[in-house]
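Tutorial handout. Part one gives the primary structure; part two gives the three-dimensional structure as tokens.
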Amino acid sequence: MKKINFLIIAMLLMTYGAEAQISFGLKAGVNFSSLKGNGYTDPDQKPFIGLAIGGLANYTITEKLSIQPELIFSQEGTQWKATDEEQKNRLNYLNVPILVQYRTPSGFFVHTGPQIGLLLSAKMTYKDHGAGGMVGEGDWDKEEHRGGQPPTLDIKRFYAGSPISWGLGAGFIHQSGFGIIARYNIGLTNALKKASDGTIYSRIFNIGIIYMPGSLKK
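Part two.
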């Protein structure tokens, strides 16, 4: 029910604005993500690097305060790299953050707020250098072995369909409409579907650029 209410609020914010000053924009950046929790504390774990791209709408409340809902396609996950093997968990989400933003007249801003994600796909790839990249277990998609490629396994069934997180960010936007942004998202709910499989939380650092034409016009 809480997730349904969150989506309803997001839709209302995206459609509201007949009397408000609204600025629309685009953003693109890079995610450095990981999963932390039971079974994910291996020293060989490395950040997963993925793309984040989407759009936003900034609703001005006062000269310095605004509400900013976004719709973002986000590549997240984690990976392990050891001497003789590699594994990557690739998770694709459609994320809806709703942020409260404070911006100074000079263009610097900070913002924070909740985010709900919709899991689109989840794949795991594994390569054993000593075995030539072959893993002979029935769950692996054998088609992915051809051409020397590492095998791929669909792991979507193991992950929660709509995880919730909280974002903290800051940035700067120029009068031209171009700007830079950095944000850190902390998972609030278990990224796994079943608690019996463990408890893990996402940790994502994102850095990118934004374009909001006319956003600083008075």
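Part three, for discussion. Residues 132-139, 142-146 have pLDDT under 50 and may be disordered. The radius of gyration is 20 Å.
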